[in-house]
């Protein structure tokens, strides 16, 4: 069986792709919640979470996957006090059955983001 590989959202000069397909698996790099111009301007965790999940969805769809194909999510968050608000958005936007998830607090994220979400999706 030949593994088909495809980088998703790679721009020459960048050090990473937004996603990478290997066979029937998609690895989505950490996605933050910037505004439409690519800047993290809001400190609102609800908005940043909504935008980060939308970015994960966009990478998945560009690779030919659906949100229901996601089997694992890793959430990096800078303030554990924001977890309840993050969970409200996550509960609404991530389809059931919910994927396996790890959530951890980090000291900081690039660009001043409060949240970054990575995911793994598998086409069944």
Task: Characterize the overall form.
Answer: globular
Mean pLDDT: 92
Q: Can you count the helices? A: 2
Briefly note the CATH topology name: 60s Ribosomal Protein L30, Chain: A
Poorly predicted regions are: none
Count of domains:
1
Q: How many β strands by DSSP?
A: 6
The CATH architecture name reads 2-Layer Sandwich
Element order, helices and strands? EEEHEHEE
Approximate strand percentage: 25-35%
CATH class: Alpha Beta
Quaternary class: single chain
Structural class: alpha+beta
Helix content: 10-25%
The largest beta-sheet arranges its strands as 1-2-3-6-4-5
Describe the structure.
The chain has helices at 45-62, 83-93, and strands at 5-8, 19-22, 25-31, 70-77, 100-105, 115-122. 23% of the residues lie in helices and 30% in strands. Helix 1 runs parallel beside helix 2. The protein has two helices and six strands, in the order βββαβαββ. It is of the alpha+beta class.
Summary keywords:
single chain, globular, 60s Ribosomal Protein L30, Chain: A, six-stranded mixed β-sheet, 30% strand, alpha+beta, 124 residues, 23% helix
Ordered list of secondary-structure elements with their pairings:
Layout lengths: L4 E4 L10 E4 L2 E7 L13 H18 L7 E8 L5 H11 L6 E6 L9 E8 L2
Parallel strand pairs: 4-5
Antiparallel strand pairs: 1-2, 2-3, 3-6, 4-6
Helix pairs in contact: 1-2
What is this structure, in a nutshell?
The chain has 124 residues and is of the alpha+beta class. The chain has helices at residues 45-62, 83-93, and strands at residues 5-8, 19-22, 25-31, 70-77, 100-105, 115-122.
């Amino acid at each position: 069986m030949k593994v088909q590989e495809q980088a998703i959202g790679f721009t020459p000069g960048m050090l990473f792709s937004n996603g990478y397909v290997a066979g029937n698996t998609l690895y989505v790099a950490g996605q933050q919640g910037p505004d439409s111009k690519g800047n993290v301007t809001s400190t609102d965790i609800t908005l940043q979470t909504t935008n980060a999940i939308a970015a994960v969805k966009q990478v998945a769809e560009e690779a030919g996957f659906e949100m229901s194909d996601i089997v694992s999510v890793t959430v990096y968050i800078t303030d554990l006090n924001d977890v309840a608000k993050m969970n409200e958005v996550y509960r609404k936007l991530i389809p059931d059955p919910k994927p396996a998830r790890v959530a951890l607090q980090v000291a900081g994220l690039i660009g001043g983001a409060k949240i970054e979400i990575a995911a793994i999706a598998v086409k069944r």
